[in-house]
Specification:
Layout lengths: L3 H5 L8 H16 L6 H7 L6 H9 L4 H12 L12
Length: 88
C-alpha cells in the first residue's frame, strides 16, 4: 500500500504531528474496510496505535479541510496546462 505518511507530509505546516500520526493510522484502516464504516470498525482494522480512543480524538479534532484539500490537490493532482472546473 502507498506510504500514507509520505502523502500527508506536505500538510504538516497546517497540522500538528499528532493529527498526522492519527491520520496515518485511520486512513489505511478505512481503505481496507468493506461495508459499514464506524469508529469501532476503524479501530479494529487499524494497526498498532489506532485504538478506539485515538479514532474518537481524531474525529473530535477541528481541521481546516478546505485548506487541506487544496494543498493535497495542488501537490499531487494539479497539472499546470489542464483545465479544472470548481463546483460546490
Amino acid at each position: 500500500m502507498i506510504d500514507i505518511l509520505a502523502l500527508l507530509q506536505h500538510l504538516s505546516p497546517h497540522l500538528d504531528m499528532t493529527t498526522i500520526r492519527q491520520m496515518s493510522r485511520i486512513i489505511p484502516a478505512m481503505l481496507a474496510m468493506t461495508g459499514r464504516v464506524t469508529m469501532l470498525g476503524i479501530s479494529r482494522w487499524a494497526e498498532k496505535g489506532g485504538s478506539y480512543r485515538t479514532v474518537q480524538r481524531f474525529f473530535h479534532t477541528v481541521l481546516p479541510w478546505a485548506t487541506l484539500f487544496w494543498l493535497f490537490f495542488k501537490q499531487h493532482l494539479f497539472e499546470e496546462r489542464a483545465t479544472y472546473i470548481l463546483a460546490g
